[in-house]
Amino acid sequence: MKDKLTLFTKYLLDFMFYSGILVILTLPFSIRFYGNYNTYFRDNYYSLLVVFFLSGIFAVLIIYELRKMFRSVLNDDCFIRENVTSLEKMSTYSFFIAVIMACRLFIYITPAVLIIILVFVIAGLFSKVLAQVFDKAVSYKLENDLTI
Predict the structure, then answer these.
(1) Is 48 exposed, middle or buried (0-12, 13-18, 19+ CB in 10 A)?
(2) Rounded Cα gap, residues 24 and 19, in angstroms
(3) Among 102, 95, 92, 96, residue whose Cα is nearest residue 121
(4) Which of 14, 72, 113, 145 has the fewest CB atoms within 10 Å, measured from its CB?
(5) pLDDT digit of tens for each residue in the chain (148 aa)?
C-alpha cells in the first residue's frame, strides 16, 4: 500500500482537477456575482471572463499532466518518455498563463498579477529544465535496460 502522503497528493490532484473544471464552468456567474460587490469586476466583466477562462483552462491542463505523471509514480515507473512530454506541455501551459496574465496588465495593474506572471514564468522554466533532466534519465534507463 502507498504511504499516506502519496495518497493524499493523489486525492488532492484529483480534487484540484475536478474543482478547477467546476470553477471554469461557473466563471460567468461568479464574476457577475462578484461584480455586485466590486465595480472593477462589473466594469471589466467580459475581459476578466476571457482572461480567467483561458488561464483556468491552462491551469487545469497543467493539473491533468501532473495527474498523468503521478500515475507513473504510483506504478513505480517514473522515467518514461510520457513524463518528458508532460513536463514539456506543462512548461508551455505555464508560459501561456504568464502571457495571458500579462495581457491583464492592460486592464488593471496589481502587485498580485505581477507575482502571478513571475510564478508562472519560473514554473515554465523549471518544467522545461526538469523535462531535459527526465529526458536524460529516460535515455540512461533505456540504455541500461538494453545492457541487461
Answers:
(1) buried
(2) 9
(3) 95
(4) 145
(5) 568 888 899 999 999 999 999 999 999 999 999 999 999 899 999 999 999 999 999 999 999 999 999 999 888 888 899 999 999 999 999 999 999 999 988 888 889 999 999 999 999 999 999 999 999 999 888 888 776 5
Give the dihedral sign, CA 77/82/85/89. negative
> Using CA atoms, how far apart are residues 110 and 117, in angstroms rounded to an integer?
11
Residue type, position 101, single letter? M
Q: Is 121 left (phi over 0), alpha (psi -120 to 50) or beta?
A: alpha
**H, E, C per residue of 83-94:** HHHHHHHHHHHH
The number of residues making up the chain comes to 148
CA 89 centroid distance within chain = 9
Q: Does residue 96 contact residue 120 with C-beta atoms inside 8 Å?
A: no
